[in-house]
Amino acid sequence: MGAPIAMQQRFWNEWNASTREMHLDEVSFRQAAVVRDWLMRQGSKTLDILEVGCGACWFSDELSQFGQVTGTDLSDEVLARAQQNIPQVRFVSGDFMGLDFGIQSFDVIVCLEVLSHIADQPAFITKLASHLRPGGYLMLATQNKTVLQKYNRIPPPGPGQLRQWVDRTELASLLSAHFEIIELFSVTPRANKGLLRILHSRTLNRPVRALIGDRLDKLKEAMGLGWTLMVRARKPVSAL
After folding, report:
1. Cβ contacts of 10 within 8 Å, gap of 6 or more
2. What is the 8-class DSSP label of residue 120?
3. What CA–CA distance (Å, rounded) separates 44 from 28?
4. Extents of the domains making up the chain
5. Which molecular-function annotation in GO is an example for this chain (predicted)?
6. What is the pTM of this model?
7. Assigned architecture for domain 5-145+161-189+227-234
8. Rounded to whole angstroms, how far apart are CA atoms 168 and 176?
9. At CA 76, angle to CA 73 and CA 77, rounded to 5?
10. Residues 196, 201, 203, CA angle at the centre, nearest 5°?
């Protein structure tokens, strides 16, 4: 069931104001870099983009370089501030599951670190698919359950914060009903407990990177040890 929407809204308004509006870390920067690369592959076409769970709207301005952007999030106070600063993006606050963005209205949906905070994940994926045109793309990032549970100490959820991480297999299963998965991989290795904490330590990795660049990080990501799961999935052209 999860927490009431009003409680979730309060949590995310406070969290974004105190955290994401103040600071971005390597996890966010890497997610943005991957999505940016995917969008550049779309060519010069002006895209209709829906950013679901735009949070502090830190990526919305950059997304607008690729087309017309609509951003939505539960954090109404945050979006009100963002609308003043990013007028070229249309922001719509509210519970995504109850909002109507039209059927087959978008070429691309971007969704970063939202899935794990959704109570009914299959229904969420179904709704995302409904807003995409046939042949449209979902570009999604979500926390990697395997890495977070096994190799990281994570504070318990706050009041109003839902937490349902998924692993690679669970993510693929959720998407398979409505999408063809084009790419699914992990990025940003991170660990703060166990042996992987040593392997991921900045003290160890700094001289290694100086010698071999990011090849070790790429290897860790290929092994599925990234904090984030990134997926690019396509809605079939034949889908109604």
Report:
1. 160
2. S
3. 25
4. 5-145+161-189+227-234
5. methyltransferase activity
6. 0.91
7. 3-Layer(aba) Sandwich (3.40)
8. 12
9. 130
10. 150
